[in-house]
């Protein structure tokens, strides 16, 4: 009998990240541990949402997962292969495996570079494709994210926030990565535009079989997009599980407080809040 061995798209084992703090001329150097012993596994084609308040370490972890920073200790495995950029450097092969989409698309795009050139640049640096092949791929990717050929020669300032985030997603996909790290990718967008971008991400995941790590503090977004949820608090993972399990029966006190502090967006909850405010105003002395 043959036993199937699961190869995970992403696996971490005891990941830690330390930062040295200046303590003065004669004081001993202090160390801040921003990420503490993080271990998890993520299956291919799934979405892991990492949630927590600002400063909890989720963006630091995102930089490690996207190969921008190396962990201080622990192991990172992508598609079953151990990745150690501190020892081996960042190779083209590694760069093809994982890409990141940041919160602010305008800040991640060169304002003096045409959108078409921004999309073709990863291909120029990491492949041997000809100029015409690079252009064709960039055009096709624009269509995939809901933009058109007329956008190819435009500059970032000529786009709306939602369109710029579509460009950032397109650029991240130019090297056909299997793993996409999305660090607060919709938090800077209006609600209606958020929905459009989230639907686009879901469609692209289905079409390309992508695996997502989705960093967010917005629990309504997490509930919509995630398969698995991991809650971080002061650099540690305090709770992890399927979306339904974590939202349906949070176990850690911090998770409960985090959920309780987030207003629910369903119609009944909104009506209850409106009614409470109306009664509070009516009870105030004239």
Q: Which regions have little confidence, pLDDT < 50, spanning 5+ residues? A: none
Question: What is the 3D form?
Answer: globular
Q: Strand percentage, roughly?
A: 15-25%
Q: Distance N terminus to C terminus?
A: 80 Å
What is the count of DSSP helices, taking H or I runs of 4+ residues?
Answer: 11
Name of the CATH homologous superfamily: P-loop containing nucleotide triphosphate hydrolases
Entry keywords:
39% helix; globular; alpha/beta; Rossmann fold; 4-stranded antiparallel sheet; 286 residues; 6-stranded mixed sheet
In words, what does this structure look like?
With 286 residues, the chain is α/β, with parallel strands linked by helices. The protein has a single domain, classed as Rossmann fold, CATH 3.40.50. 39% of the residues lie in helices and 23% in strands. It has 11 helices and 10 strands. It has helices spanning 58-65, 85-88, 92-97, 115-126, 131-144, 161-172, 191-208, 219-225, 243-248, 253-260, 267-283, and strands at residues 10-21, 30-42, 47-51, 73-78, 81-83, 98-101, 179-183, 211-216, 228-233, 236-242. The strands form 2 sheets. The protein has a 6-stranded mixed beta sheet with strand order 6-7-8-3-9-10, sandwiched between helices. Strands 2-1-4-5 form a 4-stranded antiparallel beta sheet, with helices on one face. Strand 4 (73-78) and strand 5 (81-83) form a beta hairpin. Helix 4 crosses helix 5, helix 4 packs parallel to helix 6 (161-172) and helix 5 (131-144) packs across helix 6 (161-172). The chain is globular. It starts with 9 loop residues before the first strand and ends with a helix.
